[in-house]
Every structure is written in C-alpha cells, then in structure tokens.
Amino acid sequence: MSKDLRINEEIRVPEVRFVGAEGEQLGVIPIKQALKIAAEKGLDLVEVAPAARPPVCKIMDYGKYRFEQSKREKEAKKNQKIITIKEVKLRPNIEEHDFMTKAKNAEKFLKSGDKVKVTIMFRGREVTHPDLGKQLCTKMAETLQEWSTVEKMPKLEGKNMTMILTPKQN
Q: Which residues are within 8 A (CB) of 18 and not within 5 positions of it... i.e. 6 or more apart?
C-alpha cells in the first residue's frame, strides 16, 4: 500500500489540495509552497490521494507512517486463518475397515479446521458404475456429518469422483 505513495520531490503536479499534520484542510496551493511548509515543520509531503484532481497531499512523518502501516498488516496477517484442503483417496470396492480408517483420518483433518476432498478413483471398467462411487461419497458424508457439511456434492470428473467437505462452524 505505502509503496506506491509519492513523497516530497516525487510529486510532479503544479498544485495540490493541501492537508495539514492534524488533518485540517488548507485548500489548493502550489506544490513549491506545500514542500516549503513541510520542510519548515521537518516532515514529509505525502500524496495520499493521487487519483483526485488536484491530488491530495498531507504533511506527515513518512517513516513513522510506513512503520505503523506494516505493523497493521502484520496484525491482520496474524489474525487470519489459513484453510488447507486435505485429500482422502478411496477405491469403489474398499473394505469396511479400510473405509473406517480413511473416515477417521478425514475426521482428524476436519477437527483441525481443514477442508477434506474425498476422491474416489475408478480404474478400467469401474468407471461404468458411478453409482458405487456416489454411494461411497454419501456413506462418507453420513459418517462425518457430526463434524462436517458437504460443500461440493459428488461429481464425476474423468476417472475420479470428488466431493468436498468443510468443517462445521461452532
């Protein structure tokens, strides 16, 4: 954000709308006069609204402004939650115990706040029975309904059927 702001001599317009250090409007004045006032106060002239006509410039300590800006960005970054998508791959003729193991893994992912992509891989002629894959997806969704909701219903894409589950909000 602060990287594209122009300061002091980088501002190349004949006149600017001038804002003082405390935010008071001082009207439209020539750029030389604005730079002179900023130099007298020992501060920088910063172009805060370059799109306006004439551009709006404010007197401020640019180094301090950039520091506070980066501090705000770091704080915002700290508070955001990164959601990753974990994948659980199955085959249409999976045994019950193997299915439960995969379901337990998916449950663990959902409890940690990640989305789960359930992929059923078809090989050879298995692709002619998409109903088996749909049944498996439905069974997985029912098994995990306590911890998840279905974001994307099962859909056959080539030789794979995918479904996406998201963790339930508390």
A: 25, 26, 27, 28, 29, 34, 37, 57
